[in-house]
Design brief:
Hyaluronidase domain-like, single chain
């Protein structure tokens, strides 16, 4: 049986994987605004993951690190697989993407750039019908 996910959730994942981080943020924020209950903070974590990559890409390293830490805090409490996402893999991939930025001891780090080869994607663990 295939899960029935909100179209905005799937669109947010598609945009994230296309590296359209600001658009991903907008779509997921719309869904987040209508969500009550346990998934609200999950969506907030995905929004912050998109925003931290948007900031990293644009050179706002302090904002990128702050949003990365927030995304991790929101997503870590969820099961290994939540709403079809392998969160362990995703969080590990995000950590690898941000490793140089995270080891910087400066409040406003400099000299770190986003490695495009390390940008993670969100992989659904189940088949989704169109």
């Amino acid at each position: 049986m295939t899960p029935d996910y909100d179209a905005r959730y799937l669109e947010g994942i598609r945009l994230f994987n296309e590296r359209e981080f600001f658009a991903c943020h907008d779509v997921l924020e719309d869904l987040w605004g209508e969500t009550l209950g346990e998934d609200r903070e999950f969506y907030q974590g995905l929004i912050h993951a998109a925003v931290c990559l948007f900031h990293f890409e644009g050179g706002n390293l302090g904002g990128a690190r702050k949003m990365y830490e927030s995304a991790s805090r929101y997503l870590q409490p969820y099961d290994d697989s939540h709403k079809g996402i392998d969160l362990d893999t995703f969080l590990n991939d995000m950590r690898m993407c941000f490793v140089e930025l995270l080891v910087s001891t400066n409040e406003y780090p400099t000299g770190v750039t986003l490695d495009p080869d390390r940008i993670p994607t969100i992989q659904l663990t189940c088949e989704v019908l169109p």
